[in-house]
Amino acid sequence: MKSVRSTLVLLAVLGVLSVWSLFVGAIDMTPSQLLAGDLHRWEIFLASRLPRLLAILCTGVGMSVAGLMMQQLCSNKFVSPTTGATISSAQFGILLALLFLPNSTLWSRALFAFGAAILGTWVFVWFIQRIRFQDAVMVPLVGVMFGNVIGGVTSYLAYQYEMTQALSTWLVGHFSLVLKGRYEIVWLTVPLVVLAFLFANHFNIVGLGRDFSKNLGVPYNVVLFLGLTIAAMITASVVVVVGSISYIGLIVPNIVTMYKGDKIRGTLVDTALFGAIFVLGCDMIGRAVIHPYELPIELIVGVLGSLIFVGLLFYRLKYGRKSIRLGRAPETGCAAPVAAVEGGEG
Predict the structure, then answer these.
(1) What stretches of the chain show up as alpha helix (H) in DSSP?
(2) For residues 184-200, average pLDDT
(3) Are 334 and 75 in contact (CB under 8 A)?
(4) Which one of 63, 144, 211, 320 has the fewest beta carbons within 10 angstroms of its own beta carbon?
(5) Could you please report the per-residue DSSP string of 278-320?
């Protein structure tokens, strides 16, 4: 009953914020104006406000679920699309599309982003599988360094071929350009999240290691790369439409698992709802701080996310045995340090 209660509370908060956000922006708009049949307000509502809300919800849900999957598959609470080089790889794919297909459509750029994000995530996991780490924090640090290398190559090529300004749209996440007709790619997150829920139990088993998976008859490599592919595609679809948004896939799953546990199927719904609330709240702050102008959501998420991440880091290091076991790496599994079950050994 407590589990259902938290889900209902999150759903209610999300509903209130969603309705509120439809009437926050540079142009004043009220429900009475829409009910009175103001055609100009209805045009703004259908072409900008509603698409923006849908894009925000898909972004929050998708990035949070992608982070949850990567943490479970890699058995490390600090792995996410940001620390796993997935976002940097997607940006590199978009640059390749701009270089080789200057007149490419948004869908063509999305295909390049999908391929690069999947490949970059696979390379990251392949690399960390072959190195034994002594500390859980080392795995995301390697991911950050790998992502910075990809980002450096992306910046160099963009500067070399005078693509810096064209690429800048995808380097900083913002929803100001989300309009009807050029955001629908982000809807791909919905079937991908559903697919993640269907395979949730398999992802839990794979997170316990290769030998454990084989004993239960679960194809370890197939499920591992299926989960990583889903997470990479979710991230790429968001980056193509919105741009880079950090920390969502890192902090949201950590906060939810603190009170819901580590089982994906039990936490996935709350993670999706809380992620949508977090992104929507940050977007509304960005629209209200310097109204009628707005700040990029990457700035708001970066400030709040970094503070929350530091708090989570100290919490995990102080109460690590409840969530992350720091120490020698196991011989199996995606990442070296295996996350203990929430509320485990004290």
Answers:
(1) 2-21, 31-35, 39-44, 50-74, 86-100, 106-129, 138-160, 164-171, 189-198, 200-206, 210-215, 220-241, 248-260, 264-289, 297-318
(2) 89
(3) yes
(4) 211
(5) HHHHHHHHHHHHTTTS---HHHHHHHHHHHHHHHHHHHHHHSG
List Cα–Cα distances, 251 to 71, 82, 95, in angstroms.
11, 11, 28
pLDDT of res. 1: 58
Mean pLDDT of the chain: 82
Burial of 221 (0-12, 13-18, 19+ CB in 10 A): exposed
The pLDDT of residue 136 is 66
Q: Which domains does the chain have, with CATH numbers?
A: 2-322 (1.10.3470.10)
Contact between residue 30 and residue 23 where contact means Cβ atoms under 8 Å apart: yes
Higher pLDDT pick, 29 / 121: 121
Taking alpha carbons only, the member of 57, 63, 31 closest to residue 230 is 63
Residue type (1 letter), 24: V
For 338, which DSSP code? P
Q: Compute the distance between CA of residue 247 and CA of residue 20 in angstroms, rounded to an integer.
A: 24
Quick check: 302 and 327 in contact, CB under 8 A? no
The pTM for the full model equals 0.84
Q: Which two tokens stand for residue 157?
A: 């090529």
Q: How far apart are CA 66 and CA 222, in angstroms?
A: 17
Q: Which residue has the tokens 């070296």?
A: 336
